[in-house]
Amino acid sequence: MIFIKDLLFFLLFVLLAPVNALSKKNAASSSTGATTKAGTAGGVSKAANGTMILDKTVQINGLPIRYKISAPANMFTSASGVTGGTASANTTGTAGLNVLLHGDGGTSFFDFPNQAVQNNLMGVVVLAPNKKMFWGGGSGLQRTDGVAHAAAVNTLIQTQLSKDVAFDPGNVFFTGVSGGSLLLSGFFMPAFGAQYKTGVLLNCGALTPQVAVVDANTLMQNTKIHFQSTKDELTLLQGSIPTAISAYEKLATGAGMSAGQIGNMQTVDNTPNGGGHWYVLFHIHTHKPQILSVSLRMR
Questions:
Q1: Is residue 177 a contact partner of residue 204, using CB atoms and an 8 Å limit?
Q2: Paired strand residues for 172
Q3: Nearest in space to 234 (alpha carbons), one of 209, 270, 283
Q4: CATH class assigned to 7-296
Q5: Of 267, 270, 265, the residue nearest 238 (C-alpha)
Q6: Keywords in UniProt for this one (predicted)?
Q7: CA–CA gap between residue 221 and residue 219 (Å, rounded)
Q8: Who's near 275: CB < 8 A, 6+ residues apart?
Q9: What phi and psi, each to the nearest 5 degrees, are found at residue 56?
């Protein structure tokens, strides 16, 4: 069975900002703000920490995929448009990626809390390609465009990002925030996770695999998965998160893993009491943990 691990593992990733996932009222208000911010899309800027931020939109499988990359200037390619970019396109760099999929409404895309290189991972955020800024489209637990969105994220990583920045493709980690967690757990990890063999952090949201799991043995034996929630999570998620945990545990058992191995690779925590769906997101944003926990990494 899955064991509850050290909470330090989850007060992590400088990535998470308050998000508007699954709450219709909050999602509506955030969409307004995000739409305003969307008008400033594109270009190169400098972060307060001195790194450069490339904000770009490309067409992938017919979808407009907007993304941001934060890294020192010299890690960008000369073709990226970033002044000081000296790397060659499609070459392997020394740093990996920390890819964040925001919650419904897109707040953490625009805030870009995982910017800079932390624990040797460049920050990347990707915006859901629809007006509501919902990963997987649809609403609630019904993510009707999950297959297409997951495929677009994978193609972005596999074929586009190396044109902009030199990174280590064997060191790509993932973080989901609410609706972003639904896409990762329900669609992306089952279909593409075995390619990466790293780790995924699922904050305040999870689905059972909604598509066929590709190479389940490789996925489960080589991927750290953490489910983070609270004692009074949204009613909508109180059933889906435990069901997802059980489904992934079953996949690991089917991959021949022992209880101890599963406990090391899959962890879950819902001990925060009070604040509901927003407690974890608020605390991660407020306390600003400085690096991605090494607990997500393979040892």
A1: yes
A2: 97
A3: 270
A4: alpha beta
A5: 270
A6: Signal
A7: 6
A8: 230, 232, 282
A9: -145, 150
What's the angle, vertex CA 159, arms to CA 157 and CA 160, rounded to 5?
75
Measured over the CA atoms of residue 75, residue 81, residue 82 and residue 84, the dihedral's sign is positive
CA distances from 76 to 16, 123, 152 (A): 24, 13, 22
pLDDT digit string (tens) for the chain, length 299 residues: 444 343 333 334 333 333 333 543 333 333 333 333 544 568 999 988 889 999 999 999 999 999 999 999 999 999 999 999 999 999 999 999 999 999 999 999 998 988 889 899 999 999 999 999 999 999 999 999 999 999 999 999 999 999 999 999 999 999 999 999 999 999 999 999 999 999 999 999 999 999 999 999 999 999 999 998 887 778 888 899 999 999 999 999 999 999 999 999 999 988 876 555 544 444 444 433 333 333 343 33
The DSSP secondary structure of 190-243, one letter per residue, reads: HHHHHHH-SEEEEES-----SSPPTTHHHHHHH-EEEEE--TT--HHHHHHHHH
Give me 240's structure tokens.
């889906």
Count of H-run helices and E-run strands, the chain: 10, 10
